[in-house]
Sequence to fold (444 residues):
Amino acid sequence: MSFSPTRYTLESAATGEQREDEGWTLAFPGAPSLIRTVYEQTEFCEHDQLDGLYRFASWLPIRRTLKGSASPVCYQSVELAGDLGLKNLWVVFNGWWPERGAGMKTASFKECEAYSVCARLPEDFQSVLVVASAGNTARAFARVCSDNHIPLLLFVPEDNLNALQFDAPIQDCVKLIAPASGGDYFDAIRMSGVVTTHRPEQFLAEGGAKNVARRDGMGTTVLAGVSAMGRIPDAYFQAVGSGTGAIAAWEAARRFERDGRFGPNTMRLMVAQNSPFHPMADTWAANSRDFLIPPDDQARQLAASVDGKVLTNRRPPWGVPGGLYDALKATGGDVLTATNAEAREAAKRFEQREGIDISPAAAVAVASLFSAVEEGRVRPEEHILLNITGGGSQRFHQERELFRLEPSSVLNIHAQDDEILATAEKLFPQGSPAQVESCEQRTH
Fold:
């Protein structure tokens, strides 16, 4: 099937103003606000002729399709649901589980955003895409960009580099700079911002939560869920770091509501953080649009103490119009927490009942579901969608040889702007032949 770019406009969450996408629009001028996609195709449809994630192309802001994608897989739980006394528990699984049809080789739903974001780029893209990550997002973008010859500069904390393991060497068009041990996701964000701010003509900021392709890519978890369930769920459970995936879920439910064929939109966002790092829960409990976060050193210590390292964003899109605060308010949602011990127990129980290993972050979501059931926050007959954001990695890694992506440079977390910029420019010299041409395989 030939592919034509998806038709859509962009809309301000704050004002409702609509504009055409100029190619990589991340925000409108004026007061801060997330922007949303408004698709010409208002009825949900799936393209069976397109591979993987692109079966949802009508609701993805993309110009092309890329090779290698996989779609979230949704199924109705029997064993775990029975344990919990739930009649309509549905699991949307993102990871490696061939028997269920799940084929994400990075074992994370971050593939959904990477294949969407990179498909928003034009085929003749000549700049360098820049992505900051706590680990999972970097793994997904590295895999997608390596396979599709897209120049990429990653910033990932040195303490999180174990997340960057692959079943094949990553090509040399992908480079990695690591904030030194003791740094966290926010340090990676700061360094990436230095590069994209000072050299925007050479280094393109991926945009994080501001990028509609990232959010709509992650929103495919809800698309897969509603496709399987035949209706909008009553509650949606997911562990969150930035909360971007939860915002995406809310936006997807709004599209189904507009479609009108999938029932009323009563979907509550039930998001979870890994205690003791739970600034979202603290901020929500205070009913504050202003995000409450401990001082940097204390926040780093708390982030270092949790199993779910990918859930430790210190600057999430919380209070911005269209952000997580608005999403929780609009859906009557809540922010839950789970300790390391609770999440580990939840992971064991999930694997025993469902038959597959899950990531520490996904285990936090499962633990939060357990507590919500115990506390009566969900009713037995409700249709619940549980987002397993990562799973099957242990099995995937056991079955094949692994290759680790090593950093090209490790920088002190207090490195000055000129050092960060010089390091990036050395990796991708301006005026050199297109980085695509030098995509030689690494042999780490």
